[in-house]
Amino acid sequence: MSTTTTTAAIRVTVWNEYRHEKKNATVAAIYPDGIHEAIAAALRKHPGVETRAATLDEPEHGLTQAVLDATDVLIWWGHMAHHEVSDDIVRRVHARVLEGMGMIVLHSAHESKIFMALMGDTCSLKWREATDKERLWVVNRSHPIAAGLPEHFELPAEEMYGEPFGIPEPEHVIFISWFTGGEVFRSGATWQRGNGRIFYFRPGHETYPSYHDANVQRVLANAVFWARPTVRIPRACPRAEPLEPLPVKG
Ligand code: ZN
What we know:
Blueprint: E1 3-4, E2 10-16, H1 20-23, H2 25-30, H3 35-44, E3 49-55, H4 65-69, E4 73-77, H5 87-99, E5 102-106, H6 113-119, E6 126-128, E7 134-138, E8 152-155, E9 160-162, E10 172-179, E11 184-193, E12 196-201, H7 214-227, E13 231-232
Parallel strand pairs: 2-3, 2-4, 4-5, 5-12
Antiparallel strand pairs: 1-13, 6-9, 7-8, 7-10, 10-11, 11-12
Zinc ion binds at residues 107-108, 159, 205.
């Protein structure tokens, strides 16, 4: 069974751990309604995008089967509570990606259970919370996720993430970041798993206003449109009848 999507609105669920904003006044000042709401508000400016939020402390982390069934693209921000995400919910999200749901994984969610499961790799990296500037080079300017972006753009302060990044070879690398301290990082990369498109995007440390940056918001909107499913195909492994009569044995 497969269902082809129509030209209806793209239904985006923005999932956020939503802990730093409640515990840290600096983070709360930057994201008073949570990182998820900052991202959702930027996406809602685009006609044809509908957003809903889901957070860790809701029942089933806000990701019931009904919510996932009504989600075309899932965005994921997590950091301090990856271990609190239920394995059952991770399996549910994973299955939905394989069916065709798009997934956008942000910043410290490189170590989330769902990203590690989708990648099948260490997802490890170098990091530093200091005074680095981040310069993102668009190394694949014709990719839809890079539409409308300049050749490079900068975030005046960000956490550093450095190579080596423990990911399987991406389908496309779209951004490479340079940091003041000298490191570089594949900060925007895509993969496909099953029928689902996956995009990892690096910026977004909670103590910096990166999700208020116009270029970052453009990347996320582009990624939502790029990751939109074209099919929904449940996993199946059926025995097949022949399409034509087979030669008689012997
Ligand atoms: Zn961070």
